[in-house]
Design a protein that fits this description.
Shape: elongated
Strand content: 15-25%
Number of strands: 19
Strand order of the largest sheet: 10-11-12-13-14-15-16-17
């Protein structure tokens, strides 16, 4: 995937405008070109005894060696003579010198008389040769959660390259930026980068419920997120077809799924893999609607309020079952956020027969209190806040984060004191294909049409602190809509588990480089692709090239 992203960035930015991605807050480079020594490595200071940092340094050293071109030999260009074919006279000698020697060399030519030229001047400068990138962090605490310090600085002065960060996660971003600088051919002996994210929450949501996403696919997506400095993977774990996480309390939930669910050990390993790359994992149990996958628990007292058995009833037996599942998720996932869904219980402001807004709201408020009681921060789709409109903020309780897919202006959520994550579907659902509806007219318009969005629009002053950031979303029920895909708008033949390999490749290519295009830059003033993640000018080139490697 690395090659794919690199090609995409070159296309989006143009050959003359390539910069690391997301574009850093500050980037200056005024020196001569520098090269890496054959034995170049990244090292952490001995005081920075962090297993995560040490492993990352080793990983990025390998990435850089795989991407960096071999240094070109340095021509010997002191006072010399050279035989040069010169049908155009002395200008041919000048051209030869400028190509092979230092541009400041002076030509004293005898081309017409003797068929060769003399030249004088300094040897072509080899530039600095960098042996090591020395990484220093202020704290080796490896806790990864909301609000972690991800800022860093990166500097090259002469032959000395250093990266400094407050945390190991800022250091990960510094190493990624350095790798991109090398890969893009931007390394000089006087380079300075200062960088920090605009938003705390920069995420990708993937739907594992409708079509199971194999662990290798999730790990590949995590790699892509880390290359783009996106720091949240949101797992939509439950929906109508199935519940995809192993429950020790209710093992029958996954009894009929074969291998198409995540064991608790697999989830623990996935969380650790993501953490090693600076990516948080947020789980979602979608209730009270989209709950058909829970039907096997009716024998434990679970009830629905609709005949179609998609919306859970607000009764003690049902709440007891859901509370137990939330307790399991809280133990499995260390992140402070626990997502409870709340999506489309009363779709289009119309509750299913047998269900009421009062019942839905009471259920949702109970769930928020349960999550808070577990020491977690509740997060729900904007329906918990916006349905019905005359009753805003409806069931949303203080402290709940509202993920807005488009029913309300993001500023209206903050106006009432709620933290918000922007996921407006027309721009940020990766399967929405907004550019198919409004075809692009120029080489850059595709990215502008789909991602030019200011997540903080309408928020000023103190309201800005309520803006958590944003997420792009990749749903697996219809990730490639008609008429682009066959079989009723989906790649239906990919859904059996026997097609995991084909599905994984297709789904991964549907996520990247689109998700990278929405990665946040750090400058609000830049004319760029504004997304819920902040602002992004174009797709990541160097990062992109690694994602499908």
């Amino acid at each position: 995937m690395r090659a794919v992203l690199l090609a995409a960035l070159v296309f989006a930015q143009g050959e003359s405008a390539q910069l690391p991605w997301p574009v850093p807050t500050g980037f200056t480079s005024t020196g001569s070109m520098a090269t890496l020594a054959p034995a170049f490595s990244i090292s952490a200071a001995s005081a920075n005894a962090s297993g995560l940092l040490t492993a990352a340094a080793k990983r990025y050293t390998a990435i850089i060696h795989s991407a960096a071109p071999a240094p070109a030999p340095v021509p010997e260009c002191d006072w010399q003579s050279a035989t040069v074919a010169c049908p155009n006279g002395d200008s041919d000698c000048s051209s030869w010198v400028n190509t092979n020697c230092h541009p400041a060399s002076t030509v004293s030519s005898y081309c017409r008389v003797s068929g060769f030229c003399h030249f004088s001047g300094s040897r072509r400068l080899a530039g600095s040769v960098i042996q090591t990138l020395a990484v220093t962090v202020s704290s080796v605490n490896e806790t990864l959660d909301r609000g972690i310090n991800e800022s860093y600085t990166l500097a090259v002065t002469g032959q000395v390259a250093t990266a400094r960060a407050g945390t190991v996660y800022g250091a990960l971003h510094a190493m990624e930026t350095f790798a991109q600088i090398v890969q893009l051919g931007l390394l000089t002996d006087n380079l300075h980068v200062v960088d920090s994210p605009l938003w705390t929450h920069r995420g990708l949501m993937v739907d594992t419920a409708r079509r199971f996403l194999p662990i290798p696919l999730l790990e590949n997506l995590i790699d892509g997120l880390s290359y783009s400095k996106i720091n949240v993977l949101h797992l939509h774990l439950t929906d109508e077809p199935a519940v995809r996480f192993e429950s020790k309390v209710y093992p029958e939930l996954t009894a009929g799924l074969g291998q198409a669910f995540y064991t608790q050990d697999q989830l623990a390993s996935l969380v650790a893999y993501a953490k090693s790359r600076g990516v948080r994992v947020v789980p979602e149990l979608d209730v009270p609607a989209h709950s058909g996958g829970l039907q096997v628990l009716e024998k434990h007292g679970l009830k629905y309020c609709d005949a179609g058995k998609t919306v859970l009833a607000n009764d003690d037996g049902t709440l007891k079952v859901v509370d137990a599942l939330l307790q399991e998720l809280a133990r499995l996932f260390p992140d402070s956020i626990l997502h409870f869904g709340a999506d489309e219980a009363c779709k289009h402001d119309d509750c299913p027969a047998g269900c009421t807004y009062d019942g839905v709201h009471a259920f949702e408020q109970h769930i928020q209190r349960t999550i808070t009681g577990l020491g977690k921060v509740p997060m729900g789709w904007n329906d918990v806040f916006s349905d019905p409109k005359p009753m805003i903020p409806n069931a949303a309780l203080p402290g709940t984060i509202v993920q807005n897919w488009g029913k309300a202006a993001i500023s209206s959520i903050a106006d009432l004191g709620f933290s918000a994550v922007d996921s407006t579907y027309k721009e940020m659902y990766l399967n929405e294909q907004c550019c198919r509806v409004v075809p692009p007219t120029g080489p850059h318009d595709k990215y502008r049409l789909c991602f030019w969005r200011d997540s903080g629009a309408g928020m000023t002053g103190s309201l800005q602190r309520l803006m958590e950031g944003g997420e792009v979303a990749a749903w697996s029920d219809n990730y490639c809509p008609a008429p682009l895909c066959a079989i009723n708008g989906t790649y239906g033949w990919m859904y059996p588990s026997a097609q995991d390999e084909s599905f994984s490749e297709s789904f991964g290519n549907a996520v990247f480089p689109g998700a990278a295009a929405a990665a946040a830059t750090k400058r609000r003033s830049t004319s760029c692709v504004r997304s819920r993640l902040g602002s992004a000018e174009m797709i990541d080139p160097a990062a992109a090239s690694r994602i499908n490697a």
